[in-house]
Write a structure and sequence with these properties.
alpha/beta, Rossmann fold, 7 helices, 7 strands, binds glycinamide ribonucleotide
């Protein structure tokens, strides 16, 4: 059995799609969903999906080993960041080499880095009059959005698009591809 932990800070639609994808699988379990945001929609989704959810604060995350210990105690094989908005502490990156993936709602290296998350990304794409945007799934290192890229795919951005409509297109791509790519990464683990 392979164990996945999903970190999410917001609505959690990607966390839900990944959980649904693996729901019937006897070899993979979504063991934990973790969030730094006590208001996050992902909490309600996790409860509905009967997946244990852990809410933690900034101090616990950055100044203690409690989350790392929780991951180790639950024998987590792969960490999936699905709309998680905090930088991962070095100790956690080191403990999960090539075992942590993130999804970014743009075509990295464009529109990445500190402050480039969620809606800010789509606003920047529209302000820059981009003709396309897309998603990037990548391994996580200690810098925002800089780990090796695993998968990218794009969608058209037209003159009539705004940040909301780009976000909708991106979510369609994310829901379509993220669970499958997570599955592939999991299969490649020893
Ligand atoms: C997703 O679009 C994801 O790519 C983005 O947050 C959204 C979460 O949506 N992640 C980042 O911006 C990370 N830098 P969800 O809560 O509905 O899954």
């Amino acid at each position: 059995m392979k164990h996945i932990a999903i970190f999410a800070s917001g609505s959690g639609s990607n966390a839900e799609k990944i959980s649904e994808y693996f729901a019937e699988r006897s070899d993979v379990q979504i063991t934990l969903i973790l969030t730094n945001n006590p208001q996050a929609g992902v909490i309600e989704r996790a409860r509905r999906l009967h997946i244990p959810v852990v809410v933690f604060d900034r101090k616990t995350f950055y100044e203690t080993d409690r989350i790392l210990d929780l991951l180790k105690n639950n024998k987590i094989d792969l960490i999936v960041l699905a709309g998680f908005m905090m930088l991962i502490p070095a100790s956690m990156v080191e403990a999960f080499p090539d075992r942590m993936v993130n999804i970014h709602p743009a075509l990295l290296p464009k529109f990445g880095g500190k402050g480039m998350y969620g809606h800010f990304v789509h606003e920047a794409v529209v302000a820059n009059k981009e003709k396309e945007s897309g998603i990037t799934i990548h391994y996580v290192n200690q810098h925002y959005d800089e780990g090796n890229i695993i998968f990218q795919t794009s969608c058209e951005v037209t003159e009539t698009d705004n940040a909301d409509s780009v976000a909708d297109k991106i979510h369609v791509l994310e829901h379509q591809h993220f669970p499958r790519v997570v599955d592939e990464v999991l299969s490649s683990l020893s």
